[in-house]
Design a protein that fits this description.
The complex is a heterodimer of chains A (about 290) and B (about 300). Chain A is of the alpha/beta class and about 290 residues long. In chain A, the strands form 3 sheets. In chain A, strands 7-6-8-5-9-11 form a 6-stranded mixed β-sheet. In chain A, strands 2-1-3 form a 3-stranded parallel β-sheet, covered by helices on one side. In chain A, strands 4-10 form a two-stranded antiparallel sheet. In chain B, about 75% of the residues lie in helices and about 0% in strands. Chain B has 10 helices and no strands. The chains are: A alpha/beta (about 290), B mainly alpha (about 300). The interface between A and B is large, with 45 and 38 residues.
């Protein structure tokens, strides 16, 4: 019979192709990742993507003050500095750190990652933890509201006063959630691809104010938009403190090593010093409530 | 029947042995009946094989995919029912933005496209500047990627700070789409106009029609009929390109899905959006097919 033979001829390669594409069972059944809190340098050696190299990812463009000059590899900017400090603790020299560009919305895609960890102002949430692993938090940002000098929005003194304005923030961020859940403005907030688009819309008067994390807001008002000001920062209810963490592929054994490194950096004051150096003093920004 | 001694019709039954019994009304012969049985069996067998093969191929594909080690992960990140339900309301309201944009843009694009095509076809020396503008317009706006046009119109024009000009993002995104697609559609119309046989022009002239009259009454009606399918094709494309307006912060269906996904680290919302768009474009595609068939039949005037 002709048909079955053709069919078989069509089916078999399909199945073969599928079988060929199927990755071999991943060998991720390593021992529990968190148990190795010993020396971070020893711990990391056999757990990185490429032997002898630490591959770190971030989005492009890389924004100030988290990075400087859109070049993560210069060690300048808070996150770049933290990445190199962690690398140092893990036993990687400066030259052994490789940076890769990974857009934010690719960072959590299922499948093999092309980085050891991604450092990109990513907030740790319980929901995200179901999909990826995070290191311990390395910075706790608050959210801040930016408006143009002299605009109505810049004169707001308390939280409720913000409700009537047209607000904007970057997509997928906790800044946006802060607008939606804390401020709950009457007009739908505008959502932007990145902070650059949000800044442009603010300049054009397409939004009255934008929300970003405080260090970013400080940088925007100080450097990027001369004529703008920080209206205030958010006071969070109780202890729902938000933290940025490094993002890992689910089940990556390196998390434990990085956590150990971060713990050392916190203890010896390095992290606080880096914060002092790169993230401008945030104390004198008024808290809205 | 009153046939007298008419032999059995020269059909299949008359081929060899005459059938036993009455020859008057035509009866399928034994052999024909046997043939029918064979045909039926063959048909049934083919149907069975086709179904079995289809089932086997798609079934084993589905089975194969679900056996892949990453499937569980893919199912959770792309096909989670819970996330689909949660993201649905935002996507639905975003989709209304896409539909609205499409519905407003479409008629404007049609008019603009036809006008530009006509300007390009003008022959009068007085209209040379107009012709040049039309050529420049199609060259430029067909060349610039639509996404850049959206960015340039959405942020660039309001940045000029013109007084009395709106800085509404929806409006400028709409302008960008109209400019981009107007250029495509103008070319489609031009192709249609140029496809009309010169004899039509000649006939119109012999009837004493001026060039404008010939265009208006003879050429354009025929041309429009011819280009309906490619026009509808462009509109399917436009429907999808309304998603590009998200780059300037218009919260359309695609953007609301991406926003949901980026926040929750789950891509299911994008599958939901895809379903929305498919649901919108498939009826339009079928409609295009039908129109195309109808025009083809009419043009051939029964000469199949």
């Amino acid at each position: 019979m002709r048909i079955p033979r053709t069919a078989a001829a069509a089916t078999i390669p399909l199945l073969l192709a599928l079988a060929a594409c199927a990755p071999a069972e991943e060998k991720s059944a390593d021992p529990a990742p968190t148990s190795e809190a010993g020396d971070p340098a020893e711990c990391a050696a056999d757990k990185v993507l490429t032997d002898g190299k630490l591959t770190v990812a971030t989005d492009s463009p890389a924004y100030e003050p988290w990075f400087a000059g859109n070049d993560p590899s210069n060690g300048k900017g808070f996150e770049s500095a933290v990445a190199y400090a962690v690398a140092d603790k893990l036993g990687f020299a400066e030259g052994d750190v490789t940076w890769v560009k990974v857009p934010f919305n690719n960072s959590y895609a299922p499948g093999k990652k092309k980085f050891d960890f991604d450092i990109n102002q990513i907030s740790i949430t319980a929901e995200r933890l179901e999909v990826v692993d995070f290191s311990e938090g390395y910075y706790a940002p608050t959210q801040a509201i930016i408006a143009l000098n002299g605009s109505k929005a810049s004169k707001v003194a308390d939280f409720d006063g913000l409700e009537t304005f047209k607000l904007g923030a970057q997509t997928g961020t906790t800044s946006l959630t802060a607008i939606r859940e804390e401020i709950e403005p009457t007009a739908k907030p505008l959502v932007f691809e990145d902070t650059n688009a949000a800044k442009q819309a603010l300049l054009n008067g397409q939004v009255d104010a934008i929300v970003a994390d405080l260090p970013t807001a400080l940088y925007i008002t100080a450097v990027e938009i001369e004529d703008s000001t920080i209206v205030g920062q958010f006071a969070y209810d109780d202890d729902a403190v938000e933290e940025f963490g490094m993002l890992f592929e689910k089940g990556n054994a390196l998390v434990g090593c990085v956590d150990a490194a971060l713990a050392e950096l916190k203890e010896d004051g390095t992290l606080a010093a880096l914060e002092q150096e790169w993230l401008s003093d945030t104390a004198d920004v008024p808290v809205l409530d | 029947m009153s046939d007298t001694g008419t032999p059995a019709p020269a059909g299949s039954a008359a081929s060899g042995q005459p059938t036993a019994g009455q020859p008057s009304a035509w009866q399928p012969s034994e052999r024909e009946l046997a043939r029918r049985v064979v045909r039926r069996t063959l048909h049934r067998r083919q149907l069975l094989t086709a179904s079995a093969v289809t089932l086997a191929v798609f079934g084993s594909l589905a089975f194969g995919v679900t056996q892949l080690p990453g499937w569980e992960r893919v199912r959770e990140t792309f096909f989670s029912l819970e996330h689909a339900q949660e993201s649905f309301p935002a996507i639905l309201s975003g989709f209304w933005v896409n539909v609205k944009m499409f519905l407003i843009a479409e008629p404007i694009i049609l008019v603009l496209g036809l006008l530009v095509a006509l300007a390009r076809q003008s022959r009068s020396a007085w209209l040379t500047p107009l012709r040049l503008v039309a050529v420049g317009y199609t060259d430029l706006f067909r060349g610039v990627p639509t996404i850049l046009l959206v960015l340039l119109c959405g942020f660039g024009i309001p940045a000029l700070g013109l007084t009395g000009v709106t800085n509404d993002l929806f409006f400028w995104a709409l302008v960008a789409l109209v400019l981009s697609y107007g250029a495509y559609v103008a070319e489609v119309f031009r192709a249609g106009i140029e496809s009309i046989h010169p004899s039509q022009w000649a006939s119109a002239q012999t009837l004493g029609l001026s060039r404008v009259q010939a265009m208006r009454h003879v050429i354009v009606p025929q041309a429009v009929r011819r280009v309906v399918p490619p026009l509808l094709n462009d509109f399917v494309s436009l429907q999808k390109d309304t998603a590009l307006v998200s780059v300037i912060g218009i919260f359309d269906a695609v953007f609301s899905a991406r926003d949901y996904g980026n926040y929750h680290f789950n891509y299911t919302a994008m599958v939901v959006v895809a379903a929305f768009f498919v649901a919108l474009t498939i009826p339009l595609a079928r409609f295009t097919d039908r129109l195309q068939r109808r025009y083809a039949e009419r043009e051939r005037a029964g000469a199949r």
